[in-house]
Amino acid sequence: MSKVAIALAVPSTPPVIQQLLTERAVAYREVLDHPGLNPDSKVQAVLLDDSAGALMVMFAQSQLLDLNRLADLIGRRMTAVAQSRLREILDRHGLKQLPGLPAITRSSCLYEEQLLQQPLLLISSGEPGLLLEVTREDFLRLLGVANAGRFGEPLSEIILNLNRPDDDSEAITQAVKAFTARRIQQRLEATIEIPPLAESVRKIMRLRVDPEVTIDEITSVVETDPALAAQVMSWASSSYYAAPSKIRSVEDAIVRVLGVDLVINLALSLSLGKTLSLPKDNPQSCTPYWQQSIYTAAVIEGLTRSMPRDKRPETGLAYLAGLLHNFGYLLLAHVFPPHFSLICRHLEVNPHVSHSMIEQHLLGISREQMGAWLMRHWGMPDELTAALRFQHDPDYIDADAEYPNLVCMALGLLRNRGVGHGAYAPLPDALFERLNVTREKAEDAVNKVLEAEVLLRELANKFSQA
Q1: What region holds the HDOD domain (predicted)?
Q2: Which of 229, 399, 436, 440 lies deepest, with the highest CB count within 10 Å?
C-alpha cells in the first residue's frame, strides 16, 4: 500500500459500537486522536478482575489509576484482566482496543467522578486513533448502572526529578519508607493476619447503637459468654464500685451497680482485647496496657462530666475511646512481633521521645494509624476511629473532634503525672477552650482518678486476667 493510500485510510467506528450507540439513542461525533486534545476529557477504560468477577474502571487520561486507593474504596484488591482474556472479548466483537462501554464486557462499572466536570467526553471507539465525542449526560446513559468514586491521582501532582541528581539519595530514602508503609498496609489487609470479630462482639456492637436496648437484651448477651458474665459480676463486686450489697446475678450487676451503658462499653472493650492477646514483651517501666486504658477512660469520664451538658459528646462512646485508645499497641505486637521487640527496646532508651515518633522511625507507621485502620476494618463508629487516629493532635478540629480531643487531654494530664510514656508537655489553652473545661476542673478529674489508683488497678487486673 502506498503512503498516500495509508494516509487516506481513516479509521471508522466499528459496526457493533455504531449499533450500540443507535440503540441507546446517543449522538456522537468522530474525532481523530491527537496530542492536542484535552486529557481531562479523554476517557481511559481498563478491565480489572479478581475472584469476585470483572469490573470496568474509567478515569481521565490526565490521571493515574491508584490501585491501593481503589482497593480502599471498594474493598477489593483488583488487577488488570489477563491479556488473553481481553483479546478474546475484543475479537468476539471485532474490536482492536477496549472502548469505554460496559455493555461490551458485560461487567459492572466504576468511574472517576472527576470525569463529570467535563461537558463533553471522548471515549475510545474500539478502533485505535478514533475517539467518539459524547455529552456528559449521554456518557452516563451509556454506563447504565455504574458507581462513581475518587481513586485517580492527577499526573500533574506527580513531580519527576529530571535534573537534580544530588537529590537522589534523599528521594531513595523516602521511597524506601513509603514502600515499607505500603507493605505494612498489605499485611494489615491480609485476613490471615487479622482475626475476625467474634459473634459476641458483633452482638454487643448492635446493642451499643440501639437507643432502646433493654436490660434483658444486654443480660442475655453477657450470659451467653461465661467468661464475660464472670467479669461483669467481678466488676460490680469490686471495691471501686462499692456495691451496696452482694451481687447475685448479671442482671443484678447491671441494674444495681454498673448500668447498661457502662456494661456494654466494658464488655465491648474486653471482648476486643481478647481478640488480640497482650504481648509477652513490653518496655521496662511501662504502664500496663489495661491499667493505662482504665485510667484514661476514667479521666475522660470525669472530663466529660465537667463539660457543659449541651456540649458533651456521647458519654459511653467517649469512655470506650479511652478504653480502646491504645488498641494499636496490641495490633503492632500481633502483626510485627520482631519489630515490636525492637520498638520496646527503643522506648526503654528514649523516654523523652513519644512512641509515635519511634514507631514512625522504625516502621514508617504508628500504632495510632494501625489502630484506627483496624477500627474501620471492623466497622466501628467513626467517632472511635477518629479518637484513635488523632489522639495525639491537640489542634485537631475536624469531624468528631471532641472524642480525640478528650483522649488527648486525658493522656496529657496523666503523662504529666507520670502515667504513660513520654516527657512532660503542657497542653495548649485552645484544647481546654474547645472542650469547655477549665484547667482546674481537668486537674480535679485526674486527682480523683489517682486517689482511686489502688481500686482502679484492681479493676485493671480483672481485665488482664480475663
Answers
A1: 194-394
A2: 229
